Amino acid sequence: MSILAIAGGVGGAKLAAGLAQALPEGALTVAVNTGDDFEHMGLTICPDLDSVTYALAGLNNREQGWGVTGESWAFMEMTRKLGGEGWFNLGDRDLATHVLRTQRLRQVSLSQVTAELTGALGIRQKVVPMSDDPVRTIIATDEGDLAFQDYFVRRQCKPVFHAMRFDGAEKARISEGFAQALADPALEAIIFCPSNPMLSIEPVLSVPGVRDALAARRVPAVALSPFIAGQAVKGPAAKIMGELGLGTTPAALAACYTGLIDGLMVDKADDGPIEGIITRASDTLMRDDADQIRVAREMLAFAQDLAR
Ligand code: GDP
Ligand code: CA
Predict the structure, then answer these.
(1) Rounded Cα–Cα distance for residues 37 and 11 (Å)
(2) pTM passes above 0.90
(3) Domain assignment of residue 255, yes or no
């Protein structure tokens, strides 16, 4: 049996970690957004791959909501003292990931480095980037075009979101691990994690062939909504959907996945039928490990019921 999950960063990582615990060892592949990746201080930083990796390794920092647990900040303190760039926080532990990745990327692909880093942390699931080729999310705003991290971190998502594009996507090839998971005869379900539909899922779908391969696969596909009572649990997803004139209703979310999903899991606060799609409601807030595993099991059961 195999299950393919598609995820962005922190929100996606919560469900991915639950799935990892709910499924037999080796059954799960998590295909991860790399549109947020960027070069900073000479380092290649892959925020979503790292969020998923830290969560699967049980090393995610829950208090802070991102990054590594037990983090310290000596590097940033000294960087600021020396007049270096201080707008993007790099914790001391996290920094090791970026340095090792950057070093290894001179010899091997992002997929290979990711396999090495996740393997070193004892992760038994496959974590694969959507592509080994660079894809960079650019946001068109009322203040002009902004590179993803300029919009997200430097400007804290304040500019009004007009549109996004994914530079490099036209030439990007799907990663081997992602393609293998999609073609796996043992594949039983595709699960869209509760990630930001515009900033985390769209870039994955922008890689040539991904959307068609997902749509063509005759296995149940289900998504978990990132919205609860019309609000995002965290981050700018609701603000962006509002600025795009889409809104955050289950129907608006389902429209983001047209042709890709059979079922949508929404929070009990958002329960109600949507035309053309099967919905199911649950308590979708994942506060801890127990919630993550419960919601993961519910998503797997939902997919299994749709297969009948
Ligand atoms: P990012 O790349 O770190 O921004 O993370 P993602 O794109 O993967 O996830 C962001 C989304 O996760 C936000 O829109 C949140 O609303 C959603 N999210 C975070 N925690 C939860 C949760 O416990 N339950 C649900 N349903 N969604 C969540
Ligand atoms: Ca992200």
Answers:
(1) 17
(2) yes
(3) yes
